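We give the chain.
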Amino acid sequence: MRVTRPLAIDARDPLDPIDRFALDRLLSNVDGNDVRVVVVIPAYNEAEALPAVLATMPGRLDGVAPTVIVVSDGSTDQTCKVAIANGALCCETPINRGQGAALRLGYLAALRLGATYICVVDADGQWSPEGLVTGLTYLTSGRADFVQGSRVLGSTVVGDPLRDLGVKVFATLISRLTGVPVTDTSSGLRLFTTALAGKLRLDQPQYQSSELLISAAFAGARIQEFPVHMVKRLAGQSKKATNLLYGWYYGRAALRTYLRERWIAPS
């Protein structure tokens, strides 16, 4: 089983040539002074939905303007141009590698910029960035190291019974594997400290949310959830596999991460 380096090490000297190229290009155009909160938005051909997501981004998080980075994962539309036109930075890769790879690249950028907090929100508009205000209070108050919005504690209008069942099944599975009770393991709204991020080993290119959550739990993070409202995507089509395939790949990623963190390379 491949075990990657902690993000803190890879941020200083990325092994992956695409990560290294994309980071150097991004950071050459960024003033890293006073960067406290970085919002990472992974995006693959989300030019239609992205303006509305960025329009609802809080202007202040923890009292400062957040640094918003859209990671365009090999997009072939105008995702990067739209991001920049709406006030965000764009970290662009030449090929599509998957949401997990895009998010990992965003985390590396946040670490390199010296941020204190990392926030994650999906680019499709299903999870409102306004929830970041509530989520961040758990981190700034010292009550948690890792926070995520939960549609189970809140609500959803997506209306996919099979997907809703999967949310409950995987919440039960991961709660038992980690000993940390959670209700929503694939939230599109997550926040955590860069101190925690630096300890994590992440290598899932696509089905990454369970890897992040399990890795955080095994790193000793204090994990909290808060209720959010999930809506239908604003535009475009989902890039996820069909429900059964998604469940298979997601479950495989969760079990692989558990084996890695519990037995192969414990912290």
